[in-house]
Amino acid sequence: MIPFASNVVHPFCPPEVKLENLPEMTVVRPIRTVIAVVASATLIIAAKLLTAQEAPSPPIAMIALSADQVVDNLVRRNQERAQALLHSEATRVYHLVYRGFPGDREAEMTVQATYNSPSSKEFRVVSQSGSKLVQDRVFKKLMESEKEAAQPAMSARSQLNRANYNFELVGYEPSPTGGQYVLRVNPKAKSIYVYRGKIWVDATDFAVTRIEAEPAQNPSFWTKKSEIHHEYKKVDAFWLPIRNESISFIRLGGRATLTIEYKNYRVTDARLPAEPNTAPAAALSGH
Question: What residue segments make up the domains of the chain, in order of their start?
Answer without folding.
Answer: 24-50+61-269
